[in-house]
Amino acid sequence: MPSPRATPRQKSLTSPHGLNPALQRMDYAVRGELVLRAEALAKRLPGDYPFSRIVYCNIGNPQSVGQKPLTFVRQVVAGLTHPELLKGDLPDDVVHRVEMFLGRSHGIGAYTESKGLPLVRERVAKALRKRDGVSADPDTIFLTNGASEGVKVLLQMIIRGPDDGVMIPIPQYPLYSATLTALQGRIVEYYLNESQGWRLDVNELSNRLRSAREQGVTVRALCVINPGNPTGQVLTRENLVEIVEFCEREGLVILADEVYQKNVYVDEKPFVSFKKVVTELGSSVELASFHSVSKGLFGECGMRGGFLEVVNMEQDALDMIYKTLSVSLCSNIVGQVAIDVMMTPPQPGEESYDLFVKETSDIYESLKRKAGKLSQALNTFKGVSCNPSEGAMYLFPRVDIPQKAVEEAARRGYASADVLYCIELLEATGICTVPGSGFGQAEGTYHFRTTFLPPEDQIDGVVTRMRDFHDKFLVKYS
Asked: Where is this region: Disordered (predicted)?
Protein backbone atom coordinates (compact mmCIF):
# COMPACT_ATOMS: atom_id res chain seq x y z
CA MET A 1 0.00 0.00 0.00
CA PRO A 2 1.57 3.32 -1.02
CA SER A 3 2.37 5.74 1.76
CA PRO A 4 0.32 8.97 1.85
CA ARG A 5 1.96 11.95 0.28
CA ALA A 6 3.63 14.08 2.91
CA THR A 7 2.25 17.58 3.24
CA PRO A 8 4.69 20.49 3.48
CA ARG A 9 5.42 21.31 7.09
CA GLN A 10 4.10 24.72 8.12
CA LYS A 11 6.82 27.13 9.17
CA SER A 12 6.77 27.70 12.92
CA LEU A 13 7.27 31.01 14.68
CA THR A 14 10.81 29.98 15.54
CA SER A 15 11.85 29.48 11.91
CA PRO A 16 13.60 32.35 10.06
CA HIS A 17 10.52 33.06 7.93
CA GLY A 18 7.85 32.22 10.49
CA LEU A 19 7.18 35.79 11.67
CA ASN A 20 5.13 38.60 10.21
CA PRO A 21 7.62 40.50 7.99
CA ALA A 22 5.84 43.81 8.61
CA LEU A 23 6.44 43.45 12.34
CA GLN A 24 10.04 42.48 11.69
CA ARG A 25 10.52 45.74 9.77
CA MET A 26 8.86 47.79 12.51
CA ASP A 27 11.21 49.99 14.55
CA TYR A 28 10.57 51.95 17.76
CA ALA A 29 13.69 53.90 18.57
CA VAL A 30 12.86 55.20 22.05
CA ARG A 31 12.90 51.61 23.33
CA GLY A 32 15.47 50.37 20.82
CA GLU A 33 19.13 49.39 20.78
CA LEU A 34 20.33 52.21 23.04
CA VAL A 35 17.91 51.28 25.81
CA LEU A 36 18.81 47.60 25.59
CA ARG A 37 22.47 48.54 25.92
CA ALA A 38 21.68 50.85 28.84
CA GLU A 39 19.72 48.14 30.66
CA ALA A 40 22.51 45.61 30.13
CA LEU A 41 25.05 48.16 31.39
CA ALA A 42 22.92 48.96 34.45
CA LYS A 43 23.09 45.29 35.51
CA ARG A 44 26.89 45.53 35.65
CA LEU A 45 26.91 48.59 37.91
CA PRO A 46 28.65 49.39 40.12
CA GLY A 47 31.72 48.41 38.20
CA ASP A 48 34.76 49.82 36.52
CA TYR A 49 32.92 52.72 34.92
CA PRO A 50 33.23 56.49 35.30
CA PHE A 51 29.60 56.66 36.47
CA SER A 52 27.52 54.90 39.10
CA ARG A 53 24.09 54.83 37.45
CA ILE A 54 22.28 55.21 34.13
CA VAL A 55 20.49 58.51 33.51
CA TYR A 56 17.54 57.67 31.28
CA CYS A 57 16.97 60.69 29.03
CA ASN A 58 15.58 58.56 26.21
CA ILE A 59 11.87 58.68 27.00
CA GLY A 60 9.27 60.98 28.56
CA ASN A 61 8.88 58.91 31.72
CA PRO A 62 9.03 61.58 34.45
CA GLN A 63 8.62 59.49 37.57
CA SER A 64 11.37 57.09 36.51
CA VAL A 65 13.88 59.93 36.95
CA GLY A 66 12.55 61.42 40.15
CA GLN A 67 9.37 63.43 39.50
CA LYS A 68 7.05 62.97 42.46
CA PRO A 69 3.44 61.88 41.89
CA LEU A 70 0.70 64.37 42.68
CA THR A 71 -0.86 63.73 46.08
CA PHE A 72 -4.49 64.18 45.02
CA VAL A 73 -4.18 61.68 42.16
CA ARG A 74 -2.74 58.99 44.37
CA GLN A 75 -5.22 59.61 47.19
CA VAL A 76 -8.17 59.23 44.82
CA VAL A 77 -6.73 56.07 43.29
CA ALA A 78 -5.91 54.67 46.73
CA GLY A 79 -9.43 55.34 47.98
CA LEU A 80 -10.99 53.78 44.91
CA THR A 81 -8.74 50.73 45.16
CA HIS A 82 -9.33 50.24 48.89
CA PRO A 83 -12.52 52.03 49.99
CA GLU A 84 -11.80 51.23 53.65
CA LEU A 85 -9.35 54.16 53.49
CA LEU A 86 -12.33 56.52 53.24
CA LYS A 87 -12.90 55.92 56.96
CA GLY A 88 -9.47 57.43 57.68
CA ASP A 89 -8.16 60.97 57.31
CA LEU A 90 -8.35 61.49 53.57
CA PRO A 91 -9.37 65.04 52.54
CA ASP A 92 -13.09 65.63 52.11
CA ASP A 93 -12.82 66.33 48.37
CA VAL A 94 -10.93 63.04 47.87
CA VAL A 95 -13.66 61.16 49.74
CA HIS A 96 -16.35 62.90 47.67
CA ARG A 97 -14.58 62.04 44.38
CA VAL A 98 -14.16 58.39 45.33
CA GLU A 99 -17.73 58.03 46.55
CA MET A 100 -18.95 59.61 43.32
CA PHE A 101 -17.06 57.00 41.26
CA LEU A 102 -18.16 54.12 43.44
CA GLY A 103 -21.76 55.27 43.16
CA ARG A 104 -21.60 55.43 39.34
CA SER A 105 -19.61 52.25 38.67
CA HIS A 106 -19.07 48.71 39.89
CA GLY A 107 -15.69 49.58 41.38
CA ILE A 108 -12.16 49.12 40.17
CA GLY A 109 -12.44 45.37 39.63
CA ALA A 110 -15.25 45.38 37.07
CA TYR A 111 -15.29 46.10 33.34
CA THR A 112 -16.81 49.38 32.22
CA GLU A 113 -18.48 50.22 28.92
CA SER A 114 -16.02 49.88 26.06
CA LYS A 115 -16.03 53.67 25.65
CA GLY A 116 -15.21 54.07 29.33
CA LEU A 117 -17.24 55.14 32.33
CA PRO A 118 -20.09 57.47 31.27
CA LEU A 119 -19.39 59.64 34.32
CA VAL A 120 -15.79 60.23 33.26
CA ARG A 121 -16.73 60.94 29.64
CA GLU A 122 -19.35 63.44 30.77
CA ARG A 123 -16.81 65.21 32.96
CA VAL A 124 -14.16 65.17 30.22
CA ALA A 125 -16.66 66.76 27.84
CA LYS A 126 -17.41 69.46 30.41
CA ALA A 127 -13.68 70.13 30.86
CA LEU A 128 -13.16 70.36 27.09
CA ARG A 129 -16.02 72.85 26.82
CA LYS A 130 -14.29 74.93 29.48
CA ARG A 131 -10.91 74.63 27.74
CA ASP A 132 -12.07 75.54 24.24
CA GLY A 133 -15.27 77.50 24.70
CA VAL A 134 -17.03 75.25 22.17
CA SER A 135 -19.34 72.26 22.46
CA ALA A 136 -18.18 68.75 23.37
CA ASP A 137 -20.18 65.53 23.27
CA PRO A 138 -19.49 62.63 25.71
CA ASP A 139 -20.60 60.19 22.99
CA THR A 140 -17.65 61.20 20.77
CA ILE A 141 -15.12 60.71 23.57
CA PHE A 142 -13.45 57.32 24.06
CA LEU A 143 -11.27 56.44 27.07
CA THR A 144 -8.18 54.43 26.11
CA ASN A 145 -5.10 52.78 27.57
CA GLY A 146 -2.88 55.81 27.01
CA ALA A 147 -3.03 58.02 23.95
CA SER A 148 -1.13 55.37 21.97
CA GLU A 149 -4.09 53.00 21.90
CA GLY A 150 -6.31 55.70 20.39
CA VAL A 151 -3.71 56.51 17.73
CA LYS A 152 -3.42 52.84 16.76
CA VAL A 153 -7.19 52.46 16.50
CA LEU A 154 -7.50 55.42 14.13
CA LEU A 155 -4.59 54.26 12.00
CA GLN A 156 -6.11 50.78 11.77
CA MET A 157 -9.30 52.35 10.47
CA ILE A 158 -7.56 54.65 8.00
CA ILE A 159 -5.21 52.12 6.39
CA ARG A 160 -7.33 49.86 4.17
CA GLY A 161 -4.51 48.48 2.05
CA PRO A 162 -0.88 48.97 0.97
CA ASP A 163 -1.64 52.03 -1.19
CA ASP A 164 -3.14 54.06 1.67
CA GLY A 165 -0.84 56.51 3.39
CA VAL A 166 -0.63 58.99 6.25
CA MET A 167 1.45 62.16 6.37
CA ILE A 168 3.70 62.28 9.42
CA PRO A 169 6.18 64.96 10.51
CA ILE A 170 9.91 64.51 10.29
CA PRO A 171 11.22 64.42 12.95
CA GLN A 172 8.33 62.37 14.39
CA TYR A 173 7.44 60.30 17.42
CA PRO A 174 8.07 56.77 16.10
CA LEU A 175 4.71 55.44 17.27
CA TYR A 176 3.40 56.64 13.92
CA SER A 177 6.03 55.11 11.63
CA ALA A 178 6.07 51.87 13.65
CA THR A 179 2.28 51.45 13.52
CA LEU A 180 2.07 52.31 9.83
CA THR A 181 4.82 49.80 9.08
CA ALA A 182 2.98 47.11 11.04
CA LEU A 183 -0.23 47.90 9.15
CA GLN A 184 1.69 47.84 5.84
CA GLY A 185 0.49 51.35 5.04
CA ARG A 186 2.50 54.08 3.32
CA ILE A 187 4.46 56.64 5.32
CA VAL A 188 4.33 60.07 3.67
CA GLU A 189 6.96 62.25 5.29
CA TYR A 190 6.79 66.02 5.59
CA TYR A 191 9.73 67.93 7.02
CA LEU A 192 9.62 70.50 9.81
CA ASN A 193 11.88 73.50 9.22
CA GLU A 194 14.72 73.35 11.74
CA SER A 195 16.17 76.75 10.77
CA GLN A 196 12.81 78.34 11.66
CA GLY A 197 12.34 76.68 15.05
CA TRP A 198 10.89 73.47 13.58
CA ARG A 199 8.10 75.37 11.87
CA LEU A 200 5.36 73.45 10.05
CA ASP A 201 5.08 74.91 6.53
CA VAL A 202 1.87 74.29 4.58
CA ASN A 203 3.80 74.65 1.30
CA GLU A 204 5.88 71.67 2.40
CA LEU A 205 2.66 69.74 3.06
CA SER A 206 1.36 70.57 -0.41
CA ASN A 207 4.56 69.50 -2.13
CA ARG A 208 4.81 66.20 -0.24
CA LEU A 209 1.14 65.43 -0.80
CA ARG A 210 1.39 66.06 -4.52
CA SER A 211 4.51 63.90 -4.80
CA ALA A 212 2.85 61.03 -2.91
CA ARG A 213 -0.24 61.13 -5.07
CA GLU A 214 1.90 61.11 -8.21
CA GLN A 215 3.45 57.88 -6.88
CA GLY A 216 0.02 56.30 -6.53
CA VAL A 217 -0.40 56.74 -2.78
CA THR A 218 -3.91 57.44 -1.51
CA VAL A 219 -3.11 59.89 1.26
CA ARG A 220 -5.89 59.77 3.84
CA ALA A 221 -4.71 61.66 6.92
CA LEU A 222 -2.26 64.17 8.35
CA CYS A 223 -0.65 63.65 11.74
CA VAL A 224 0.35 66.77 13.70
CA ILE A 225 2.12 66.66 17.08
CA ASN A 226 1.54 69.88 19.03
CA PRO A 227 3.53 70.68 21.15
CA GLY A 228 6.13 68.80 19.17
CA ASN A 229 7.86 65.55 19.97
CA PRO A 230 10.87 65.36 19.63
CA THR A 231 11.21 68.99 18.54
CA GLY A 232 9.37 70.98 21.23
CA GLN A 233 7.77 73.61 18.98
CA VAL A 234 4.31 75.05 19.71
CA LEU A 235 2.04 75.92 16.78
CA THR A 236 0.35 79.30 16.60
CA ARG A 237 -3.39 79.63 16.01
CA GLU A 238 -2.61 81.07 12.56
CA ASN A 239 -0.62 77.95 11.71
CA LEU A 240 -3.46 75.73 12.92
CA VAL A 241 -5.92 77.59 10.70
CA GLU A 242 -3.65 77.01 7.69
CA ILE A 243 -3.45 73.29 8.48
CA VAL A 244 -7.21 72.90 8.95
CA GLU A 245 -7.93 74.71 5.68
CA PHE A 246 -5.33 72.58 3.88
CA CYS A 247 -6.82 69.32 5.19
CA GLU A 248 -10.37 70.39 4.39
CA ARG A 249 -9.31 71.34 0.86
CA GLU A 250 -7.46 68.05 0.33
CA GLY A 251 -9.92 65.75 2.08
CA LEU A 252 -7.54 64.62 4.84
CA VAL A 253 -8.38 63.50 8.36
CA ILE A 254 -6.41 65.37 11.05
CA LEU A 255 -4.79 63.24 13.75
CA ALA A 256 -3.92 65.74 16.49
CA ASP A 257 -1.45 64.45 19.06
CA GLU A 258 -1.91 66.99 21.87
CA VAL A 259 -0.57 65.10 24.88
CA TYR A 260 1.86 67.90 25.82
CA GLN A 261 -0.74 70.67 25.93
CA LYS A 262 0.15 71.55 29.55
CA ASN A 263 3.87 71.65 28.74
CA VAL A 264 4.10 75.10 27.12
CA TYR A 265 6.92 77.37 28.26
CA VAL A 266 6.46 80.53 26.15
CA ASP A 267 3.72 83.01 27.06
CA GLU A 268 3.39 84.32 23.51
CA LYS A 269 2.46 80.87 22.20
CA PRO A 270 -0.34 79.45 24.35
CA PHE A 271 -1.67 76.03 23.45
CA VAL A 272 -4.68 76.13 21.12
CA SER A 273 -6.47 72.89 20.31
CA PHE A 274 -7.34 71.75 16.81
CA LYS A 275 -10.87 71.13 18.11
CA LYS A 276 -11.26 74.83 18.95
CA VAL A 277 -10.01 75.96 15.55
CA VAL A 278 -12.06 73.42 13.56
CA THR A 279 -15.23 74.38 15.44
CA GLU A 280 -14.72 78.14 15.27
CA LEU A 281 -13.99 77.96 11.53
CA GLY A 282 -17.11 75.89 10.98
CA SER A 283 -14.87 73.43 9.14
CA SER A 284 -16.15 70.04 8.03
CA VAL A 285 -12.71 68.44 8.33
CA GLU A 286 -12.65 65.13 10.19
CA LEU A 287 -10.57 65.34 13.36
CA ALA A 288 -9.34 62.93 16.01
CA SER A 289 -7.41 64.40 18.93
CA PHE A 290 -5.53 62.53 21.64
CA HIS A 291 -4.58 63.26 25.25
CA SER A 292 -2.88 61.31 28.04
CA VAL A 293 -2.06 61.36 31.77
CA SER A 294 1.47 60.20 30.94
CA LYS A 295 2.68 63.67 30.04
CA GLY A 296 1.69 67.17 31.10
CA LEU A 297 2.36 67.71 34.80
CA PHE A 298 0.95 64.35 35.86
CA GLY A 299 3.66 62.06 34.53
CA GLU A 300 1.53 59.01 35.38
CA CYS A 301 2.90 56.86 32.55
CA GLY A 302 2.22 53.58 34.31
CA MET A 303 -1.48 54.29 34.80
CA ARG A 304 -2.02 54.12 31.03
CA GLY A 305 -4.85 56.63 30.96
CA GLY A 306 -5.80 58.43 27.74
CA PHE A 307 -8.70 59.51 25.60
CA LEU A 308 -9.54 60.39 22.05
CA GLU A 309 -12.19 62.81 20.87
CA VAL A 310 -13.54 62.82 17.34
CA VAL A 311 -15.20 65.67 15.44
CA ASN A 312 -17.16 65.65 12.17
CA MET A 313 -17.09 61.86 11.83
CA GLU A 314 -20.12 59.88 10.65
CA GLN A 315 -21.80 57.30 12.87
CA ASP A 316 -20.20 54.44 10.92
CA ALA A 317 -16.77 55.70 11.97
CA LEU A 318 -17.86 56.06 15.60
CA ASP A 319 -19.23 52.54 15.53
CA MET A 320 -15.94 51.25 14.14
CA ILE A 321 -13.96 52.93 16.91
CA TYR A 322 -16.32 51.39 19.45
CA LYS A 323 -16.08 47.94 17.90
CA THR A 324 -12.28 48.05 17.74
CA LEU A 325 -11.96 49.16 21.35
CA SER A 326 -14.53 46.61 22.49
CA VAL A 327 -12.23 43.76 21.42
CA SER A 328 -10.18 44.68 24.51
CA LEU A 329 -13.41 45.13 26.52
CA CYS A 330 -12.43 48.46 28.11
CA SER A 331 -9.46 50.53 29.19
CA ASN A 332 -8.16 50.08 32.72
CA ILE A 333 -10.21 51.78 35.44
CA VAL A 334 -7.27 53.42 37.24
CA GLY A 335 -6.34 55.17 34.00
CA GLN A 336 -9.94 56.29 33.50
CA VAL A 337 -10.00 57.81 36.98
CA ALA A 338 -6.64 59.50 36.38
CA ILE A 339 -8.09 61.10 33.23
CA ASP A 340 -10.95 62.47 35.30
CA VAL A 341 -8.57 63.97 37.86
CA MET A 342 -6.39 65.50 35.12
CA MET A 343 -9.33 67.08 33.34
CA THR A 344 -11.16 68.10 36.53
CA PRO A 345 -8.53 68.81 39.21
CA PRO A 346 -9.32 70.20 42.67
CA GLN A 347 -11.14 73.53 42.48
CA PRO A 348 -10.71 76.72 44.56
CA GLY A 349 -12.26 76.26 47.97
CA GLU A 350 -11.74 72.49 48.03
CA GLU A 351 -9.45 71.02 50.66
CA SER A 352 -6.85 69.65 48.22
CA TYR A 353 -6.68 72.74 45.98
CA ASP A 354 -3.73 74.60 47.54
CA LEU A 355 -1.48 71.54 47.68
CA PHE A 356 -2.42 70.53 44.13
CA VAL A 357 -1.58 73.99 42.79
CA LYS A 358 1.73 74.04 44.63
CA GLU A 359 2.78 70.59 43.42
CA THR A 360 1.83 71.24 39.78
CA SER A 361 3.39 74.72 39.79
CA ASP A 362 6.64 73.36 41.20
CA ILE A 363 6.80 70.70 38.46
CA TYR A 364 5.97 73.17 35.69
CA GLU A 365 8.45 75.84 36.79
CA SER A 366 11.19 73.24 37.20
CA LEU A 367 10.58 71.84 33.70
CA LYS A 368 10.68 75.36 32.26
CA ARG A 369 13.98 76.16 33.98
CA LYS A 370 15.56 72.84 32.95
CA ALA A 371 14.47 73.27 29.33
CA GLY A 372 16.18 76.65 29.18
CA LYS A 373 19.31 75.59 31.01
CA LEU A 374 19.96 72.48 28.92
CA SER A 375 19.25 74.11 25.53
CA GLN A 376 21.48 77.07 26.37
CA ALA A 377 24.27 74.74 27.45
CA LEU A 378 24.04 72.57 24.32
CA ASN A 379 24.37 75.65 22.14
CA THR A 380 27.81 76.28 23.68
CA PHE A 381 29.12 72.88 22.53
CA LYS A 382 31.37 73.04 19.48
CA GLY A 383 29.42 72.06 16.35
CA VAL A 384 26.08 71.72 18.18
CA SER A 385 22.97 73.84 17.60
CA CYS A 386 19.74 73.41 19.54
CA ASN A 387 16.41 75.14 19.13
CA PRO A 388 14.86 76.04 22.49
CA SER A 389 11.98 73.92 23.71
CA GLU A 390 8.75 75.92 23.57
CA GLY A 391 6.85 72.93 24.93
CA ALA A 392 6.82 69.17 25.59
CA MET A 393 9.74 67.47 27.40
CA TYR A 394 12.51 67.21 24.83
CA LEU A 395 15.37 68.86 23.01
CA PHE A 396 16.55 67.74 19.57
CA PRO A 397 20.04 69.20 19.08
CA ARG A 398 21.86 68.97 15.78
CA VAL A 399 25.43 67.69 15.93
CA ASP A 400 28.15 68.16 13.31
CA ILE A 401 29.74 64.71 13.35
CA PRO A 402 33.29 64.37 11.93
CA GLN A 403 33.74 62.39 8.73
CA LYS A 404 35.90 59.78 10.48
CA ALA A 405 33.03 59.10 12.87
CA VAL A 406 30.65 58.77 9.93
CA GLU A 407 32.99 56.22 8.38
CA GLU A 408 33.37 54.34 11.67
CA ALA A 409 29.58 54.15 12.08
CA ALA A 410 29.29 52.72 8.57
CA ARG A 411 32.04 50.20 9.30
CA ARG A 412 30.13 49.00 12.37
CA GLY A 413 26.93 48.69 10.38
CA TYR A 414 25.01 51.44 12.18
CA ALA A 415 22.11 53.04 10.34
CA SER A 416 23.48 56.52 10.99
CA ALA A 417 26.48 58.23 12.58
CA ASP A 418 24.30 59.60 15.38
CA VAL A 419 23.84 56.00 16.57
CA LEU A 420 27.59 55.81 17.13
CA TYR A 421 27.50 59.16 18.93
CA CYS A 422 24.73 58.08 21.30
CA ILE A 423 26.24 54.67 22.01
CA GLU A 424 29.59 56.19 22.89
CA LEU A 425 27.86 58.87 24.98
CA LEU A 426 26.08 56.12 26.94
CA GLU A 427 29.21 54.06 27.48
CA ALA A 428 31.29 57.07 28.55
CA THR A 429 28.76 58.86 30.76
CA GLY A 430 25.82 56.59 31.54
CA ILE A 431 23.47 59.08 29.85
CA CYS A 432 20.94 57.30 27.62
CA THR A 433 19.56 59.35 24.72
CA VAL A 434 18.01 58.43 21.35
CA PRO A 435 19.69 58.92 17.94
CA GLY A 436 17.97 61.44 15.70
CA SER A 437 17.78 58.85 12.95
CA GLY A 438 15.17 57.04 15.06
CA PHE A 439 12.82 59.98 14.56
CA GLY A 440 13.77 60.91 11.01
CA GLN A 441 15.87 63.90 9.97
CA ALA A 442 16.96 65.79 6.89
CA GLU A 443 19.55 63.91 4.83
CA GLY A 444 23.11 64.69 5.84
CA THR A 445 22.16 65.95 9.32
CA TYR A 446 22.63 64.26 12.68
CA HIS A 447 20.73 64.80 15.90
CA PHE A 448 19.87 63.17 19.19
CA ARG A 449 16.81 63.51 21.40
CA THR A 450 17.18 64.09 25.10
CA THR A 451 14.62 64.78 27.76
CA PHE A 452 15.20 67.45 30.40
CA LEU A 453 13.44 65.38 33.07
CA PRO A 454 16.26 64.55 35.52
CA PRO A 455 16.02 66.51 38.80
CA GLU A 456 17.32 70.08 38.70
CA ASP A 457 20.20 69.32 41.00
CA GLN A 458 21.44 66.76 38.45
CA ILE A 459 21.15 68.88 35.29
CA ASP A 460 24.50 70.61 35.78
CA GLY A 461 26.16 67.21 36.13
CA VAL A 462 24.44 65.97 32.97
CA VAL A 463 25.70 69.03 31.07
CA THR A 464 29.25 68.59 32.37
CA ARG A 465 29.37 64.91 31.39
CA MET A 466 27.86 65.60 27.96
CA ARG A 467 30.34 68.40 27.30
CA ASP A 468 33.35 66.35 28.39
CA PHE A 469 32.24 63.45 26.19
CA HIS A 470 31.50 65.68 23.20
CA ASP A 471 34.92 67.33 23.29
CA LYS A 472 36.67 63.96 23.50
CA PHE A 473 34.50 62.55 20.71
CA LEU A 474 35.56 65.38 18.37
CA VAL A 475 39.23 64.82 19.24
CA LYS A 476 38.92 61.04 18.82
CA TYR A 477 37.51 61.32 15.31
CA SER A 478 39.30 64.46 14.12
From this structure: 1-20
